Amino acid sequence: MIQLGLLLLLWATSTSTSTSTSTSTSTSTSREACPNVPIMQDFDLENFQGRWYVLAKYDSAANALKKCMSPYWTLNEEGLLEAEINLLEGVDNVSTTFTGVSTFIGTEGRYTVEYDGEYFGEHWIIYTDYERIAILFSCADIAIVGGTNFFILGREQQIDKDSFVEALQFLIDYQLNDLGLVLEDWSECPDMTY
Question: In angstroms, what CA-CA distances link 102 with 83, 97, 116, 117, 172?
Fold first, then answer.
């Protein structure tokens, strides 16, 4: 179980430092106003597919009306990741499912996404170990709708503290800790079994 106080203390008192990883930053000209955020290289679509759960998200008005978000990606014969996202939305917590496709660009963890015929711009997978945790990021400069956003995903609805701190440290290292963070409480999603 995640210790909320410890994680928020780490987040609030963090200092920005830079570390090297196996990722590199995108050279896309569309991201000039975006933070210098790495994108996963040699991204493994097959290992990434499957069920994920949103454990934390950017504190924004749009995200406040969505909870219990769980994406499921399936690699199809064309090499695209078909996407299905289940969530509760709105004040009344209406169960909603969006379906679409994530089209990856080259061998990076960079993709465009379309749900139910609506284009949602470009997104980046900036960190994943494929087995426990992943961080998805979009920048207002490259997203067609919405703005800067990020999600910390886990393979389980709860994740061990060390794995979560690892994800937070990654965000701190790349100076994304100035973005507000909201932790998802999956105990409030008793009927959201997938």
Answer: 6, 16, 12, 12, 27
Q: Which residues face 81 on adjacent strands?
A: 75, 102
Alpha-carbon distance 46 to 39, whole Å?
17
Under DSSP, the state recorded for 77 is: T
Q: How far is CA 16 from the centre of its chain?
A: 20
Low-confidence winner among 7-11, 61-65, 120-124, 133-137 (lowest mean pLDDT): 7-11
Distance in angstroms (rounded) separating the CA atoms of residues 11 and 180: 9
Class of the CATH-defined domain 38-188: mainly beta
Q: Please name the helix (run of DSSP H) or strand (run of DSSP E) that holds residue 33, with its range, or none.
A: none
CA distance linking residue 62 with residue 118, whole number of Å: 16
**Tens-place pLDDT, residues 146-170:** 467 889 999 999 888 898 889 889 8
